[in-house]
Amino acid sequence: MAFTRFHPEATPTARIGLGLAAVGRPGYLNLGRAADLPAERTPEALRERTHRLLDAAYTQGVRYVDAARSYGRSEEFLAGWLESRAEAAKELVVGSKWGYTYTAGWRTEADVHEVKDHSAATLDRQYAETTALLGDRLDLYQIHSVTPESPALSDPAVQARLARLAEAGVSVGLSTSGPAQAEAIRAALEVTVAGRPLFTTVQATFNLLEPSAAPALAEAHEAGRTVIVKEAMANGRLAGEAAPPELLRLAQETGTSADAVALAAVLAQPWAGIVLSGAATVAQLNDNVAAAALSLDPAPLTSLARLVEAPETYWRTRAALPWR
């Protein structure tokens, strides 16, 4: 199934996607990770956890899965699951990303966990690595963490390669990060090759703490791009005991969890196509999927506006989170 034929609005649950960043590698910058994963985070243990999450997600109607070259063995784990679930594989839409190289060597205490490079050489190498694992199951290939200064927004060699992928049936997108996400999104919307827009999708961080990309994401939606939201839980800052009191109070009033309320607030955005769950446990996934059926009154959502941080503050705090 090509991403361009994927209709997340088909069912409420289909608007939830499963991101594999938290389970494809032993270290990740997410709060509560020590309690979420087994103490011995061997490749075998995380492969089993990934497969359990994929089983649970598929059973509940999730149809989009998001991986990346820098997510450790996420593509490998996903490929194994797809091979063993032939019927499910026909319905699942698979996205991955290039631009970061995983360098931690399966260690949680590595000095550097990933290295960013948006050159044509990295695209060639990582696309070959991705397709060696996923073959023709790759529906969407995204540039990982584009910022306004990213060479991928202006490099003809990179753009020509991506255009050839699009011509071959692989949808092309990008993800953004940093306090200038809106600028990067607007620049991406202007990128064309042979008179045609290059990017089909835009993936960006948007949550109750960092909503600054909203106007640009609305513009992307109006321009016909599918918007994918990542980090709706703000790397755990909006989940469980770490959630702000206002969010916990609203969760109690609605009889649900802080996770579900935070995701429901994102799903309520008219431009949001797919919202990723970064669940590391099946229980977390269940809470996240419940957000698809949760309808929040506008008044409580307005009250959560006090949680918003300045983009520079949010991204500085995120950068300071430890890789656990």
TrEMBL record:
SUPFAM superfamilies named in the record: NAD(P)-linked oxidoreductase
Pfam family, one: Aldo_ket_red
Boundaries of every NADP-dependent oxidoreductase domain copy: 47-304
CDD domains, A to Z: AKR_unchar
Matches recorded under InterPro entries: AKR2_Oxidoreductase, NAD(P)_OxRdtase_dom_sf, NADP_OxRdtase_dom
Protein name: Predicted oxidoreductase
Lineage: Bacteria, Bacillati, Actinomycetota, Actinomycetes, Kitasatosporales
